[in-house]
Amino acid sequence: MKAGRVRQRFGSKRLWRKQHHLAENGYASHQEWLRDWREARSDEFFVLGSRDETAGCQLCVARVADDGSQTLRLRLPDCLAPRHGKYLTIQDVRFAYGHAQVLAALESNAEYTRYRREHGEQAVRATALGQAVSYRFKRDAKGWRVFATTEMMDGPVVTDTRCGAIGVDLSADHLAVAETDASGNPVHAFRVPLVTYGKSRHQAEAIIGDAVARVVAYVRAAGKPVVIERLDFRQKRAELEGESRRYSRMLSSFSYGKVKACFLSRGYRQGMEVQQVNPAFSSVIGRVKFMERYGLSVHQAAALVLARRWLGCSERIPRRRGPPVGDGVQVAFTVPARKRVKHVWTYWGAVSGQVGPVLAVQHRLGRRRCPPNPVQAARGVA
């Protein structure tokens, strides 16, 4: 590094060092090690794509068959041409994941070629046509694999804010979902189990993916955008400080960032709007205004607040002074004096300061959380 040179070793440093201890690593001779070394150095190669080239790549051109499969024509190096020919044709290629996206990129490249032929190079560069498609060929124990990389194209948006919104509150053991109409009135509410405590990283990712997929399917059917929290893990932990030990353990193992990334990626792929709002006082507002009124759990009420906040609905403090805190207990709080110069969240902060200590005392006394009031059955909110 001091000399301005960066040393790289293709084939792995571990395998390189094995040549100095052949017997200890199971090699009878240096030639056996050299064979493994050369195979390790030539087990993959990358073909870079470009939107200016045919089918998005100059050295690996893809053609789409009538059945949707692809035929790849790979340009071989000149040193291999006398033995294997100039091109290697790979037929009946189907990608297990993202095959439709690759086909869409190839269709865009075909349109790019037609447009350039009719209108010229300068005109086609001003359009959004054409996608670079890069290929990586990798050899493993089963043989050669091919991976295609391209930029995902924007699809049609299937959600409309004019129909309402669907709020999602992220809890440590479930996702609380609340759907509203265009006026912010609740239409439907449910919960999706999401327990990642005690699971490995891959198991947790699979559980999160399944839970988000269930919510996304509901959102697409409803045709409304989904509203999630603008996540702040430290703030979320502070809000749940008064929860039980079991709840705290689940919270420590829960990845809010993965849930957010999963919603954003699935929303982009499926044309679903994913909006983020500040979750300030959403739990308190939901507990005071909507939990008992609509028979919702506190998390479903918080999800309702998120959806209403995105729609721009009112969050003024109600006149009644007895918000439920669980187990049939209500706490009376003093409604702060309203001043027009202050934001409404200022007053909700004062209410939170009165309700929060009561919740903390309940959990310290060991009171279990009770299910929501069965008013939801009468009001049609499940």
Structural class assignment: alpha+beta
What is the level 1 CATH name of the largest domain?
Answer: Alpha Beta
CATH topology of the largest domain: Nucleotidyltransferase, domain 5
What is the count of DSSP helices, taking H or I runs of 4+ residues?
13
Q: Report the biggest beta sheet as strand number plus sense, adding barrel if it closes.
A: 5 strands, mixed
Please tell me the CATH architecture of the largest domain by its name. Answer: 2-Layer Sandwich
The pLDDT mean sits at 80
Give the helices and strands as they follow along the chain: HHEEEHEHHEEEEEHEHHHEHHEEHH
Helix content: 25-40%
Query: Oligomeric state of the chains?
Result: single chain
What is the tally of beta strands? 13
Organism: Caldilineaceae bacterium SB0662_bin_9
Protein name: IS200/IS605 family element transposase accessory protein TnpB
Written description of the protein model:
Strand 12 (324-326) and strand 13 form a beta hairpin. Helix 6 (201-222) crosses helix 9 and helix 10 (282-294) packs across helix 11. Helix content is 40%, strand content 19%. The chain is an alpha+beta fold and 382 residues long. Mean pLDDT is 80; it is low at 368-382. It comes from Caldilineaceae bacterium SB0662_bin_9. This is IS200/IS605 family element transposase accessory protein TnpB.
